[in-house]
Design brief:
The protein is of the alpha/beta class and 312 residues long. The chain has one domain: Zn-dependent exopeptidases (Aminopeptidase, 3-Layer(aba) Sandwich). Helices cover 39% and strands 15% of the residues. The strands form 2 sheets. The chain has a 6-stranded mixed β-sheet with strand order 2-1-3-6-4-5, sandwiched between helices. A two-stranded antiparallel sheet has the order 7-8. β7 and β8 form a beta hairpin. α1 crosses α6 and α6 packs across α8. The longest helix has 25 residues. The radius of gyration is 19 Å and the shape is globular. 48% of the residues are buried. The structure holds zinc ion (ZN). The site of zinc ion has 7 residues, from loops.
Length: 312
């Protein structure tokens, strides 16, 4: 079964790449074996180390959210991503790359492109948000939703998708894929992304406060790679004075990084590279010290009236 699952995913990945790069589906499928430029990988090597791409938000001319006491989001998320990288590298089980350097501005489209060029097995965007209510605090994790699941998530997605140089919102690019296979790839990626988000929250919820209903979905441009399981973590609320102070502290950033690294390790235990996943929605609910995460339905309709709607 492993070979079958692996082969299917690799075919889906190839086809997803064809669509993303504008190549012809039928031409790709019609090529005789061995003639294509991107040979299919039958199975991961025995000591295959998954490629983790970390995407610290903002940078350069884009400071991101500005905290209660003036700290810039870009200066919180970059060192935290570095700590995550060190944690993962220390395990000798992963390869790690970052989408940007210190205080480098990288457009949203380019972040996704860099991850795809690296053949990422997993993509994690790292952010810290600012909410209208300064009393709100806690960490949350987002996966992609075709439609922002509530007003707050929509506003946040709009903010995070703002491309200050090119004015490009990747999420508004045409998503017409023209083939059932690409839909399957998207669906499988979505399922894996949800599983990843859940593992992150289980690991992080042991050490840090979570936002109420911390597993969420929104239309983030950086989560749109069709073939890379992706999530976006909001480390906390810079709009909350106490949480801003915590987020400034290297010790707290390291605690967050340890939790993220544990979540990534746990994800690859349940979803080894090249294998499909079972229905993640029916797995163990996320528990938080502050609230019960419970099941996180994927569809927006079922979330309405609770969860993110409590953020006012
Ligand atoms: Zn951000």
């Amino acid at each position: 079964m492993r070979d079958i699952a692996c082969g299917r995913r690799d075919v889906l990945r190839l086809l997803a790449g064809c669509v993303a790069t504008g190549l012809n589906f039928k031409a790709a499928l019609a090529q005789p074996p061995g003639r294509g430029k991107a040979p299919l990988r039958v199975r991961p090597p025995p000591r295959y180390r998954p490629m983790i791409v970390l995407d610290p938000g903002h940078g350069g001319i884009d400071p991101g959210a500005i905290g209660w006491d003036g700290v810039y989001e870009k200066n919180i998320v970059y060192p935290t991503a570095q700590y995550v990288s060190r944690q993962l590298i220390a395990t000798h089980r992963f390869r790690v790359a970052m989408t940007r350097g210190p205080d480098e501005y990288v457009a949203l489209r380019e972040r996704v492109a860099r991850a795809r060029a690296l053949h990422a097995d997993l993509f994690l965007a790292i952010h810290a948000d600012a909410l209208p209510n300064p009393a709100m605090q806690g960490l949350s994790v987002f996966t992609l939703s075709a439609k922002a699941s509530d007003r707050e998530a929509a506003a946040l997605a709009e903010s995070e998708n703002k491309d200050v140089v090119e004015g490009v919102r990747l999420s508004r690019e045409p998503r017409e894929v023209g083939a059932v296979l690409i839909d399957l790839a998207r669906r499988q990626t979505d399922n894996l992304s949800i599983a990843f988000a859940r593992e992150l929250l289980v690991a992080l919820g042991q050490d840090v406060a979570l936002l109420e209903n911390p597993q969420r979905s929104a239309d983030f441009a950086v989560l749109t790679a069709p073939d890379i399981p992706s999530a976006l973590v909001e480390l906390g609320c810079l709009s909350n004075p106490a949480e801003e102070r915590r987020l400034r502290q290297p010790a707290y950033q390291q605690r967050l990084a340890r939790g993220i690294a544990r979540g990534i390790e746990a994800y690859f235990v349940i979803s080894p590279p090249g294998e499909s996943t079972s229905d993640p929605v029916s797995s163990t609910p996320v528990e938080s010290g502050r609230s019960s995460g419970g099941r996180c339905p994927r569809d927006d309709k079922s979330r309405r009236g609770h969860g993110c709607a409590s953020i006012r």
